[in-house]
Amino acid sequence: MGQSSVRGEGTRGRVPRARELGWDDDLHGAGEATGAKDGAPEEEAEADAPVPARASRRRGGHGGGTGAGGRAASRRRAKKTGKRKVLRWTAITLSLLILGTAGAGYLYYEHLNGNIRGGDRAGGNSGVKKSAPNAMGDTPLNILLIGSDSRADAKNVALGGGKDLRNNPPLADVQMLLHVSADRKNASLVSIPRDTIVHIPECKDKNGTTYPATDNRPINETLMRGGPGCTLTTWEELTKVYIDHWMMVDFAGVVAIADEVGGVPVCVKTGVYDHPTARVKGGSGLKLRAGTTEIQGKQALQWLRTRHPFYNDQGRAKAQHMYLNGMMEKLQSQNAWTDTGRLMGLAETATESLQVSDELKSVKKLFDLAMQLKNVKLNRLTTANIPTAEWSQDHNKNVLIKKSADKMFAMLRDDIAFDKNGDPADAKPKPTASTKPKATAGAPGSLAVAVVNGTGSDTEPAAEGRARTIAELLQGKGFTEAKFSQEGGNREDTVVAYPKADADQGKANALSVAKALGLPDSAVRADAKVEGITLTIGADWREGSVYKHEKPKAGDLPEGSDVVQGDQKECMPVYSAYYWDGKS
């Protein structure tokens, strides 16, 4: 066992058992790694919240710090890396907070492991597979960040109100997908409004209870229909993006983290007071004067839950993005990563506040994950909202603007940067190393291909005779066994599916069909429901004999995405009904 170091006793020694644990010795180097926190839940809070005492005690008389030698080394490292601001944030910050505990010894490391709560990665089967690696063998990293509105304990009831809701299952009121590019040079953070109506697949919770699929419920209900794994599966079905992990935090966790950090800077253009109005009951109680304010404790939770003063759910998500950027900047300005005592407090709070998918349930795994972000510069971080519109059946709920949302999802799937700040060469999708099948495709004339017309959509019927037209096109290219099917249905994109059980040969045959039609390799997918090669013509190919699908370019996000770069400074606008003069 490594020996525990004592807080506040000079410079940090080498990390106990560092190499055995798979860590570098220089974990605490300024500019080497840091992080932030994930989104927090909303709903109108009214009750006063007790401020967690342990955070203030840790920051009190137990200051850690480094000795003269440590400070000099920190300055040298800071000078070396000061020219490039590095992304250190989001719920991943919470994992990076943990890296400081290595200096506290192996026993403390084990203690922190005991703090971390886990759960199954997925709650259902989306059928989405991890992206093929690029030519360098790297794949994108996708992490779903969830804010729960659970009132399961007294702290959360005090913070969120609604003591009569204590026995209700929690809702996923905040959902953000963090996408980090395969080359780890850029990152995108995508939010969806909590009341967006989506298809929720069949899910199973930790007790084995099965929840049937539904098409008319809001996405925040996924958490009560199978836990965070169901939320992840729903996002995978929605975006067709494989999600590696999830992280979740509740009301009390948000407050504890904000207090431990010592406040997070946010900004409003005018004074704001989120109070009940004649038209809208409740309100978060947030009260801020115009300009920049450092918020913490209950006020931080109020900021993350405020909606109507920021106009709508999209505005609320933008405010949440501002908060995450502010937390990252605050931690950087504190040089928190060179102070062992400070890091111990941060790590304790982080591990107590987080719940993660099981494959992340250790300090080392969280640290390894956090290190994936160390090369992403702040100006290469883009936050965005999935474009939505009011649902015709209920103006309090949203639906996706499909064309715009599909474009954003395609950029995530193809690992196309959301910004234009990178090297032009980085703007193009990277070639993959594993699209070449392991088997050799059969002769075209030997392949039975079922062609299905899926060109219909919610707004227009299927293009008549489309399956027959494409089947004949295939026959002309030598696929003489291609037959059009009478089955229909709606599909947004054109795909060539092969039986999941026939992974190698089926994939080779499907790729052969895709190549003959000019379809991208990404259109080829395994499907447990098909019995043979099945070509479904989607709404993206309603006419013509040549498949035309122009790839989005870097930074070419759809209208309504509310894009903000990580290094941009912009205050939140406030709806006039919630103006506050800063006096009353």
Structure description:
This protein is α/β, with parallel strands linked by helices and 584 residues long. The protein is built from 15 helices and 23 strands. The strands form seven sheets. An eight-stranded mixed β-sheet has the order 1-14-9-2-3-4-15-23, sandwiched between helices. It has a five-stranded mixed β-sheet with strand order 19-18-22-20-21, covered by helices on one side. Residues 1-68, 76-92, 95-104 and 429-434 have low confidence and may be disordered.
Features of the shown structure:
globular; five-stranded mixed β-sheet; 17% strand; disordered N terminus; alpha/beta; single chain; eight-stranded mixed β-sheet; 584 residues; 15 helices
Short synopsis of the structure:
It is built from 15 helices and 23 strands. It has helices at 18-21, 53-59, 68-81, 91-97, 106-115, 154-160, 228-239, 251-261, 297-305, 313-334, 340-353, 363-371, 402-413, 466-476, 503-517, and strands spanning 117-119, 141-148, 172-180, 187-191, 197-200, 203-204, 210-211, 214-218, 245-249, 264-268, 272-273, 287-288, 291-295, 355-357, 381-385, 388-391, 394-400, 449-453, 482-484, 495-499, 524-527, 533-537, 564-565.
